[in-house]
């Protein structure tokens, strides 16, 4: 069955193989500013992942670690993203980031599984190490992929959720990368992307 993609997804170059595969999909996102929530919703609706993993900083434009007075705004926006993720029919895993409040995530989460940084989960035969920051990952565990965010660092077996939205196809262990919308890094607070 073919359908027409919304223009912003066509501009993003959404790979046809992502839409046409019959394999289950794991969607990995990280450090999401609230202005891309509609993009995330549309991407979920089109790609229909079976699993969604968010590796922290759910409302990345609200720097809660440095601005605790924004907690009420954070609560409202994090609830909006949790509704998007949890209403998707996917199994959802969340690793709290440095800009998140783990207690608020636990309180507002209805179905998402909160995973401690450095935790390892297994999905359909592949082992995934999950963290917000790459330094939280354990090096001595056998894994297929390490999923993380927080900065632009690239590590061995790593999929950085800041650089791309990563889709993992567990049966073939293929990775399909989708670019974030233009301006996402600016909204995250990154004025200059050094080292890229």
UniProtKB/TrEMBL annotation:
Domain Calcineurin-like phosphoesterase: 25-114
SUPFAM superfamilies referenced in this protein's UniProt entry, alphabetically: Metallo-dependent phosphatases (SSF56300)
Taxonomic superkingdom: Archaea
GO molecular-function terms, A-Z: hydrolase activity
InterPro entries (UniProt xref): Calcineurin-like_PHP, Metallo-depent_PP-like
A Pfam entry, by short name: Metallophos
Protein name: Metallophosphoesterase
Organism (species): Thermococcus argininiproducens
